[in-house]
Write a structure and sequence with these properties.
eight-stranded parallel barrel; 16 strands; single chain
Amino acid sequence: MELKVDNTPFKAMLTPLDLGFTTLKNRIVMGSMHTGLEEDRGGLARLAAFYRERAQASVGLIVTGGFAPNRAGRLTPFSAKLTTRQEQGRHQIITQTVHDVGSKIALQILHAGRYGYHPFIVAPSSIQSPITPFKPWKMSERRIQKTIEHFVRCATLAQDAGYDGVEIMGSEGYLINQFIAKHTNHRTDQWGGMLTHRMRFAIEIVRQTRAAVGHGFIIIFRLSMIDLIENGSDWDEVIQLAQAIEQAGATLINTGIGWHEARIPTIATMVPNGAFTSLTARLKSSVNIPLITSNRINTPEMANALIASGGADLVSMARPFLADPLWVEKAQRGESQSINVCIGCNQACLDQVFVHKNASCLVNPRAGHETTLIYQQTDRLKRIAVVGAGPAGLAFATTAASRGHQVTLFEKAPTIGGQFKLAVHIPGKADFAHTLRYFTDQLERLDITLQFEISPTPEQLLDYDEIVLATGVTPRIPEIEGMDHPSVMTYIQALTGEKIPGQRVAIIGAGGIGFDVATWLVHPYQASSHVKQIDDYCDEWGD
């Protein structure tokens, strides 16, 4: 679709960015995220279809999930790597697909270091990570030099495969970050000790990669702006490293936040939107190359404001493109209310990947299944009744209507959302309101008939071709003596205000709802400004 920047409320983020040798058509980066398709047999073809939907909807630049530059650098024994010409050839379906629809794509090079989950992991020092069971082998100077060569080899293979660039993963506690931080680098040779020695590994990778790929190739360095661990980099060290990376030949610097072993949450829903973007803005005056900001940015309003303020040149988002592949296209049309916003739940993306399943999305189950879950226009229109306007009923109703069916949605409450409405009241889950806003918009666009405050009888449903029951769940009441006492209440009664909890409360059930209710009791939700949300977050977790 043709972009008319002057007519959109999001002009700053939709303005092209000239990198000298190439131009990005806008300032939105689809950040790196591992989907699990990278390792599946035939998975790269499915991955290409996944990227295609985002690319043809005008994402400026896509960054793939991480590919290891050698065997030792893999996250698991069978994790994806790019080390041979044969592996390179398999990637061409990805690059060609993305280029065919007019976007650009970079391959992320990720060496796990001591975060690898296999017995052959290596690190600058033999210090075991608290999140993996294997102690790494200390890298010899020869192994260090070979690993640098492997990074360069991976970059040149990516270039030959048609990628527009690479992102060198230098943050989140992976190998390069392990060299930079005193926390994991206890060496006393030219690769350890003083900062200039600790950052030599990162600089040599960027410098030698630039020499190998030439001028007209994007090199992004993902730099940890705050490690959130003991003996991590201080701010002066971050600046010194950023300036050295620029001098070594990087095109862009991307913002990395926190090591994976850090105890401070960085991407959970409790983290305020854009909580760490001030770090990117703080670095802006110290370097001359464009900076990418990231972490918990999920709406065009925030993305545009960050770029318009001058605090960043680009915005990187990963999970929001699982939730809605048309994110940029909808923003171009000024239709942010129709974006299916990421709620930061991590349930179908990270949680799935951690148990070696393919990533998807709780609010968009089609994510990662673009080649198998295909919504086609119906050739036989049906009248469909959907009973229940919770998330399941809403998802089915909108999908069926988008395929051309006539849908009537019945709901006994006066509004949509079911128990999802309760989640909005939990501190840290304000983003859930975006989902209800999205479905409200879709119901109107798709001309779905709404019947509120009605529980339909069988007679009322006789005229429909299909009936879908999406009546949700009810609290399970345990058979405990005294359950009929006036002080006993369900979580629904408590959260809706039907009953008021006292000062001392016992919660039966320690699942997700139990924890949500406990959080709500201890920290009652109060709508507050974005600045106050970040201040409260910093007060709880530290500045």
